[in-house]
Amino acid sequence: MDIVAYGVTVDERPLLEEAFREHHGLRCLDLVLNGDTAVTAAGCQVVCSSVNDVLDEGVLRILAAGGTRLITQRATGYNNIDLEAARDLGLAVSRVSAYSPHSVAEFAWALALAVDRKVPRAVTRTRDFDFRLNGLMGRDFHGRTAGVLGTGRIGTAFARIAAGFGMRLLGYDIAANEECRVLGMEYVDRERLFSESDLLSLHAPLVPETHHIVDARALSLMKDDALLINTSRGGLVDAHALVETLRAGRLEGVGLDVYEEEAGVFFFDKSLDVMTDDTLARLMTFGNVLISSHQAYFTRDAVGQIVATTARNVADYLAGRTGDDTLVPSPTR
């Protein structure tokens, strides 16, 4: 059986090759899967996609025509896949429904601490042998309010760390999480979450109801010295509104590991290219904004679990099994 995996990093490749060592047809590509590259999957029964691949109806038609029967995504999110089109084309689809929540939660805190304590600016200065402290003053998190938008596994892990800092906890979700309540979290409406949080961290999936949940109005409710952290999905934040908020001198700091238009940019070397995304370029100019390239999940523990689950999803497909990771079952099973 031939398998092709897209968007494979150098560090991820040996893990995939080990997991699929019994499948001699595995090919690992660093390409983004889209309308221009879909033909490279011709003859492969299984396509192993990444979060920034484009699997719209057009791409899925090319894959189905080339012999693909299973799309297995190496990610929890799947908003990049047209599930209805996959179902109509007879393509099975699976994902990784869960992996180490600590990887993302801990990275969210890395961003929060870095922007609060001005670590990037400090490192740049000391590399130039400038050891002054001017402009580097941060704040204690202890005693302040952490807002968690989305209190699933990752949000809960984030809240647990916040509790360790001695922070007051506010949460917002469609359903309360008892684990978070035990930590002392108070569930509030969005208006209170935005207006009372000193640190707001986003851990919600991207669905129509959460698209641009942090919009101009939400940003206007936030404290002028609040911190905003997003390690979930770029589409949760209206980036244009965020730029205008920052231009007005509001928000103490922003940490973004995701960006709405990151496909085709994140995971690639663009250092010699002209940046045509004016919004991303503008965000990069703010000294209190720290942007990383969707790496919050990228630990040995989490990637190992993702790869193992992906391999199991392929095995389940071949055995005619479905489970929690199945998004679209095979029409013949």
TrEMBL record:
InterPro entries: D-isomer_2_OHA_DH_cat_dom, D-isomer_DH_CS, D-isomer_DH_CS1, D-isomer_DH_NAD-bd, D-LDH-like, NAD(P)-bd_dom_sf
Pfam families attached to this UniProt entry: 2-Hacid_dh, 2-Hacid_dh_C
Domain D-isomer specific 2-hydroxyacid dehydrogenase NAD-binding residue range list: 110-296
Organism superkingdom: Bacteria
CDD domains: LDH_like_2
Gene3D superfamilies assigned: NAD(P)-binding Rossmann-like Domain (3.40.50.720)
Domain (D-isomer specific 2-hydroxyacid dehydrogenase catalytic): residue spans on this chain: 12-322
Keyword set includes Membrane: no
Keywords: NAD, Oxidoreductase
GO molecular function: D-lactate dehydrogenase (NAD+) activity; NAD binding
Family as reported in the entry's similarity comment: Belongs to the D-isomer specific 2-hydroxyacid dehydrogenase family.
Name of the molecule in the record: 2-hydroxyacid dehydrogenase
